[in-house]
Amino acid sequence: MLAAISLLFMTFSCKHRTNDMTFSFTDAEITHNSVQFTVTPSDLYQEWFFGILPSADVDGKDDAQVISETMEMDIFFKRSGVLYCDVQNLLAETDYVALAYASDNAEKVARYAFRTLAEPETPENPEDPETPEDPETPEDPDTPVDPEDPETPVDPEEPEDPEIPEEPIAPIVELVVDKTVIKDTGADKATFTVYVDGVDLTSESVIYNITEGKNLEANVFVSETAGFYVFTATYNCFTSEEVKIQVKEARAYAPGDFYNENGVKGVVFHLLDEEGTSGYIMSMDEAYLEWSTEYVWANCTSGRGEWNTEDMLKLGADKYPAAKWCVEHGNGWYMPSSKELNFMWNAVSNGKHVFDEEFIKLYNDKLDDPISMDYYWSSNETSEDMAEVVAFIDQSVVCLNPVKTSCFNVRAIYKF
Predict the structure, then answer these.
(1) pLDDT means per 10 residues in the chain (416 residues)?
(2) Hey, what domains does the chain have and what are their CATH numbers?
(3) Burial, 223: exposed, middle or buried (Cβ in 10 Å; 0-12, 13-18, 19+)?
(4) Hey, how many other C-beta atoms are within 10 angstroms of the C-beta on 361?
């Protein structure tokens, strides 16, 4: 009861005092669970108290007792001015008393007694007085009926569920790079390709350098600062997994040095810069193979062996045993051109074009298969049936033109 009563009280403030406060209760409206009326004090500025209590808590007590008990329980309104009372959640058919009195004069308490109404009755079924009567459901004029039995409605056919369109499958975006380790020369480069569901869409994608917080201008990355760099590719809001590239501090090499970086092994024989950070290496091994198995012009006339090798392989790798053997060393390896083979011969002969076994030990001591005083295939051809070899023989600087089906030594090279 105390919790229910406490909901009926709240506190306000006043401005001045008087000792002859009177109250009037008007415009009462009572239901089974609420009451609304107006309480008007004779002095609108005087602070006064108001409360609603069950009559059982008030009967038989004088004003001083009621005031004392309500104030001790701290469950009364305290306010000034006119009160428009609206109290809900009362009990039905219960007697209540509204109390009002001035805050500084508790000699006289104004009371307003009222009784809540009974709860409204629920209509009953005349055949079963204890069961409420269910309202009749009006017939649906659109409900089909069986013509042989008009009083029995026919269940309408349920509409088919609309087809829910399948959600589009997100494309698979893959970022691929040709090298995951490059040197900090600013010239060594890593080239990216973006595949979307297996299709090369690099030109329509954005490659983002997460480490430096910027997009790549093209699909090529170079750097002069050693460290790790992380990249992703985005195509139409779909993003690839991250790809990491390491930029390593470039080492300075000299001809005859052993090269062993990122799984690539060989011996340096020619430099492309004064710093020794780029050049050519020769493979650790060599083979004795045919240039080709047929007489066909392959357009291999370039001084760049990688171009010649690519032209041969386009026609079928198995038809070009020497070139096939070179590229099987791994990515970046190829069959040297005549020009590049002359770089090698010049290096191992110390520029004298003499097979000096003592000097050539600078290379042979590091190689698995030593360089032989013999003929070496180049990737250049001179006709449909002939290709060039370079003679690693004393005083030889001449390229000979044997038939392509002949067997000679071949050694792969790699550009770093």
Answers:
(1) 36 39 84 86 76 81 70 55 80 86 70 88 61 57 60 64 75 95 90 96 95 93 95 94 93 95 95 93 98 96 95 96 98 96 95 92 96 95 95 77 95 96
(2) 2-115 (2.60.40), 173-248 (2.60.40.10), 258-415 (no CATH)
(3) buried
(4) 13
